[in-house]
Amino acid sequence: MATIFSKIIAGEIPSYKVAEDAENYAFLDINPVSKGHVLVVPKIEDDYIFNLSDERYVSLTLFAKKVAKAVDKAIECKRVAVAVIGLEVPHAHIHLIPISEEKDMDFKKPKLSLSDEEMKKIAQSIADEFNK
């Protein structure tokens, strides 16, 4: 059975896409820790990031770096933090989280609730930076 991320990549479930290439897909987390929180996933389904082939791991990491640079330009923050937890969805993924303080990375704090309009605006601003 396909994961929710595979369904998002296939277009079966809508997402706030910010970037895509032949092997990877990036979209806004719908339960963000901070404004501009992006998930970066490989298009192939694998439960654990360190099970990816070296080539796919490098592809995912370099894609995430390019997305992070776009997030950094589009969202006011001091840094874009990176987290790989991998317990919530059985599909390898990287969290890119705009932060200004370490506490901004706290996954236990209440998640933000942003309107559809705001999510679309954030996704578009990151996508615009990614495509420059």
The oligomeric state is single chain
Work out the radius of gyration. 14 Å
Please state the structural category: alpha+beta
Written as H for each helix and E for each strand, in order along the chain, the element string is HEEEHEEH
Biggest beta sheet summary: 5 strands, antiparallel
β-strand amount: 15-25%
Low-confidence stretches: none
Assign a percent range to the helix content. 25-40%
Strand order of the largest sheet: 1-2-3-5-4
Tell me the overall shape.
Answer: globular
Number of DSSP E strands: 5
End-to-end separation: 36 Å
List the topology elements.
Layout: H1 4-9, E1 17-20, E2 24-28, E3 38-42, H2 54-74, E4 79-83, E5 94-99, H3 116-130
Antiparallel strand pairs: 1-2, 2-3, 3-5, 4-5
Helix pairs in contact: 2-3
